[in-house]
Amino acid sequence: KANPIPGDEVTYGIGELVDKELRERLLKINADALTKNERTGAGQLIGDFWFSAMDTVSIEKNGITPLKPELDKIAAIKTRPEVMAQAMRMHGYGSSVFFSEGVAQDPKNSEMQAYHMMQGGLGLPNRDYYFSTTPRTEKILALYPSYIAKMFVLAGTDSAAAAKKARAIVALETTLAKASRKLEDLRDPYANYNKIAIAKLSTLTPGIDWPANLSQLGVKHVDSVIVGQPEFYKALDKALATTDLETLKDYLTFHLLSDYAESLSKPFVDAHFDFYARALRGAQQQKERSRRMLEAEQGVIGEALGQLFVKEYFSDKAKARYQQIVENVRLAYKARMEKLDWMSDSTKKKAINKLMAITKKVGYPDKWKDFSSLKIDRGPFVLNMMRAAEWWNQYSLNKLGKPVDRNEWDMTPQTYNAYYNPSNNEIVLPAAMMTVPGYTDEELDDALVYGYMAASTVGHEITHGFDDEGRQFDEKGNLCMWWAAADTTQFNKRADVLVQQFNKMVPIDTIHINGRATLGENLADLGGILIGLDAFKQTEAYKKGEKIAGYTQLQRFFLGYALGWMMVQRPETLADRLLTDVHSPAKYRVNGPFPNVPEFYEAFNIKPGDKMYLADSLRVHLW
Questions:
Q1: First vs last Cα of the chain: how many Å apart?
Q2: Strand pairing partners for 196?
Q3: % the chain with pLDDT above 90
Q4: 314 and 413 Cβ atoms separated by less than 8 Å
Q5: pTM, to two decimals
Q6: ∠ CA 264-93-296 to the nearest 5 degrees?
Q7: CA–CA separation, 623 vs 621, rounded Å?
Q8: Distance of alpha carbon 187 from alpha carbon 184, whole angstroms
Q9: SS3 at position 266
Q10: Are 490 and 479 in contact (CB under 8 A)?
Q11: pLDDT per residue as tens digits for the range 95-148
Q12: For 600-618, what is the mean pLDDT?
């Protein structure tokens, strides 16, 4: 109540405060790069990118002129095979029309990179927006054709023709959405693993020449691909054969304009904001340009920025502290696993082997990416963004046929986030994730740090290795059956208690949390709290038991955890995330798991009748 959401935000909380601190540091790095005007290395990339991004005079003057060569290519299409050829060209510069694809580890052979083909091609966040009957989603679907038409009008089409094009595009996307799997169904790694020889893809899609199209895109050194959702590709094949050619061309045109709208002149930026930010997520006003351009830069050359960031803002002492915390949490989890009474000795032994094999990456990479072949200049901003997307696409495709580089990072050091990668069996903890706004690391007591970092991040990410999805990968990152059948049954039975708890939670209107879709994150939250707390109990601070600011060590641990989820968000954003996000809303990531933790009752003297009291028989007993 004391922290109203600023007009240019859709959520506001500790994450935004951290981002504000980080933003000030990164803006200084950009300003320095502009002043120095270096002609080589990271300084050149950062300085020239920032110049083109902030050159609004040229951006407004150019309008969509920089995109004209691509728009002309679409307009010149005369056959259906040419539609797919242009689609592949667009995939090359980051516009994922008709479907999604990319390079990632083979889940069943983690030593090798594989080419994955997934469902996609929708302009709305996911399939449910095309079919859901809640008032909020119906409103978004009703507004979507107007947004599509607006893109065409801004590109020079008269309003009546634009409206007609929009209706046809929505009909095409609805067909693709109908064949798309639901959020919870995408979390089954076996059901979404279908390896097919490239030469035999024609049995799935007779009308699409995949060998030619994939070759055009640059897919080399592999003779098979992993198709996530085969039924989607059957529907795509039929849609490409039966949809009017002009509609297919209009679909490509719209997605090109929409995907790059934020890099074009103000009318395009405003139209994109009005639909995707204002209508969909409830934002009231746009963020200032420097913030938006910083976000774009992070996605393009974030690791170049990161090199300069860690030199300035992440000490060796802080890195050592968090590396030790990872080990403490790991050992706490090992001790907890050893005491489990529901898991067989054989599965337990394999689980502990996997736990001890988890690679930890803390702070920043040992080896930085080489951006020397990326062309960034002071010309049209949208072309810098397109060339960067092409560079990243090629960077990714170049991995095919080569062993996996297990030292690579998929996040920048200045990212306030973290992740667990099941195929690498690793946790990655960027430097920025350790930030508490307004404080240096030296000022933070262990109780707070173990709640804020050890439980909500380190323990959370490690637990992902043993959640409903991550547990299916072995210590080397391969998808395989390593659990005894009886242990799998026990796991599912105990995890289902958490599913049912979250299914009953209603954050807004009549929209419930999807307990099945959010299960992995909810398990990671609960597991993180349990093992983070076990690790904290081994510290000198906990053993001394001194109060700080009137709170016990145990209370500060729980408050430290909650600190990371202090957040308010707009109703529109909350409703959107309940449909599209596998994470529960922030409030429920605290109030959801805590009633399952025995020490929570001790810390705050929770009694029967209190709102967060759960009888022991109703609690989750897994880890």
A1: 36
A2: 225
A3: 95
A4: yes
A5: 0.93
A6: 50
A7: 6
A8: 6
A9: helix
A10: no
A11: 999 999 999 999 999 999 999 999 999 999 999 999 988 999 999 999 999 999
A12: 97
